[in-house]
Amino acid sequence: MSSTTTQTGDDARRAASTMPDPATHYGLGIRTEESSGTTRMFLTGELDIATAPSVETGLRLAQGGHHAVVVDLEDLTFMDSNGILTFIDAARRANESGDAFGVVNSHGTVTRVFELTSQQILLGTGYATS
What is the Cα–Cα distance from 13 to 85, expressed in whole angstroms? Predict the structure, then answer.
């Protein structure tokens, strides 16, 4: 006999946040905090072609249940164009749904990637609303 378990959105998010993240094998840590309808995602290590899919998955889960998502890059040491594309996609989804998205605490070479790609609009001390 087999059984099927259906998870609600909240159950799925809880399950996803407790599962080991394959990105940690590639040098990226992802931690989230939720408060008052806002998800704050903290990234540590490197955001690149190997780790961007894990960030994308985390952002989609966060955006599915909250009106505001803020990504904190204070402990991010490296980011390539895959990170920028991930953030552009998240900003587009937020804009389409009337929600807020932003990136905070960028620094050094990580900020330089935003500048080189003319995506500084994603950066700020708070978060952008659509």
Answer: 23
